[in-house]
Amino acid sequence: MSKNLDIINNHESVVRSYIRNFPTVFTKAKDHKMWNEDGKEYLDFFSGAGALNYGHNNDHMKQKLVDYIMSDGITHSLDMASTAKAEFLQKFYDVILHPRNLDYKVMFPGPTGTNTVESALKLARKVTGRTDIISFTGGFHGMTIGALSVTGNSMKRQGAGIPLQNTVTMAYDNYVDHDTLVYLERFLEDKGSGVAIPAAMIVETVQGEGGINAARFEWLKQIEEICRRWGILLIVDEVQAGIGRTGTFFSFEAAGIKPDIICLSKSLSGYGLPLAVTLIKPELDIWKPGEHNGTFRGNNHAFVTATAALDFWMDSSFEEEIHEKSEIIYSFLEDIVEKYPEINGEVRGRGFMVGIASEVEGFSSKVTARCFELGLIMETAGPNDEVFKLFPALNIPKEDLQRGLEIIEESVKGLVKDPVTN
Ligand SMILES: Cc1ncc(COP(=O)(O)O)c(C=O)c1O
User: Which end of the chain, N or C, is less packed with Cβ atoms under 10 Å?
Assistant: First the structure.
């Protein structure tokens, strides 16, 4: 047992989690690879749970950051003005918002995903004067109280220790065999339903933690229409599905919708540095100055790397690259499900946000554990960890993508052939 692992296990709270699935001490990471203390190499199909869509320590971003640090550029500035922030805002407008015909004000909440979600919920309530939020089965939005109140997972919800209020959960797409939106709209129109018209609906286009459930574009379009019809604000939580993960910069682009409020974080900084934004339709930007505040909103190092990361989006080549490789991943997963019927598998997801849900209890956790032994880092998702979830860096070279897929197949094959000893 490693001394460093001992130190961490002795001193860190039992709340630690990923270390339990990947019990080794990492020392170095580059692009889509990580190394541990013994020099063992791992392919990273986890990517910081979506915070490292461009891999680890990307050379271009690193150089910009090192230059900035060496020139004593501002590190911390609350929400005072800095050149790093101005450059980020300008480039985000030029490269992302303007070409997509999207008109949003950019708010900096705290630097994490749950911070942007909290700010979105607060703003929706303030704008509409209503209290309730509709969220969806399987949704995951973060660990602070507001975000937990719109999160489905019962274990996480219980952690709140208080009643989670002013929210109503509705069925996500394909949650049942019926059209879930007929049911949703009936609740809104029926004065006897017990459900008040909410301030907002909050939705993920593909649910990450909830089990890689991808809503159909048609469903998302109808959600938008229902919101418009009833004067309900539409919040799309892009924290995990955004920044290219499903194939486009915003995951909702392909559905042709325009949310009122957008939550972005994880891979926004591109370098794994904490950064979040809440994008707000201009007419909804009715905050009083300082009404939503936070010490770490001016993370200038993250602005620098986020600005550099936008170079990936200057033309359509990166999207094309993601598309091409995601087809390789998807057909690999379909083959696995067909070749190994024993796992009762179902391919889920979209783009680079995909996985296999297995009906065999504990199977997906065993696959990820076996992959780890074989040098591949991958996590599970879903309320019962029933999905093994492939999250490689979007710019992973095809050869290493292929190598990772081979490790996954080897793990699945081993477990199917030898289920008793595993
Ligand atoms: C969709 C979604 N929203 C919000 C969050 C919370 O982000 P953070 O962990 O940075 O608070 C996550 C985290 O996984 C997420 O997947």
Answer: N
Residue 110 Cβ < 6 Å to ligand 1: no
Nearest CA to ligand 1 atom 3: 141
42 DSSP β-pair partners: 34
pLDDT digits 0-9 by tens, 24-61: 999 999 999 999 999 999 999 999 999 999 999 999 99
Say which amino acid occupies 99. P
Q: Residue 123's pLDDT band (boundaries 50, 70, 90)?
A: very high
**Strand ordering across the sheet containing 41-44:** 26-30, 33-36, 41-44, 376-377
Ranges for all domains in the chain classified under CATH 3.90.1150.10: 3-58+317-417
236, 262 in Cβ contact below 8 A? yes
Does residue 420 register a pLDDT over 80? no
- Cα-based angle 280, 284, 290 (whole degrees, multiple of 5): 80
For residues 183 and 171, what is the distance between their CA atoms, to the nearest angstrom?
8
Given a contact cutoff of 8 angstroms between Cβ atoms, the answer to whether 94 and 313 are in contact is no
CB distance 390 to 409 below 8 Å: no
Residue 36 CA to ligand 1 centre (angstroms): 26
173 close to ligand 1 (CB < 6 Angstrom): no
The CATH number for 3-58+317-417, chosen from 3.20.10.10, 3.40.50.720, 3.90.1150.10, 3.40.1190.10, is 3.90.1150.10
Q: Is 203 in the pocket of ligand 1 (CB under 6 A)?
A: no
pLDDT digits (tens, 9 = 90+) for 227-273: 999 999 999 999 999 999 999 999 999 999 999 999 999 999 999 99
- Ligand 1, atom 16, lies closest to the CA of 240
- Mutational pocket test of ligand 1: of 143, 240, 268, 353, the residue with most ligand atoms within 8 Å of the beta carbon: 240
Q: Is 240 in the pocket of ligand 1 (CB under 6 A)?
A: yes
Average pLDDT score over residue span 314-323 = 98
* pLDDT at residue 421, as a whole number: 52
CB of 267 closer than 6 angstroms to any ligand 1 atom = no
What are the CA-CA distances from residue 390 to residues 113, 220, 329 (Å)?
21, 24, 9
DSSP 257: -
pLDDT tens-digit map of 171-227 = 999 999 999 999 999 999 999 999 999 999 999 999 999 999 999 999 999 999 999
Q: Contact, 48 vs 239, CB < 8 A?
A: no
We find that the CATH architecture of domain 73-313 is 3-Layer(aba) Sandwich (3.40)
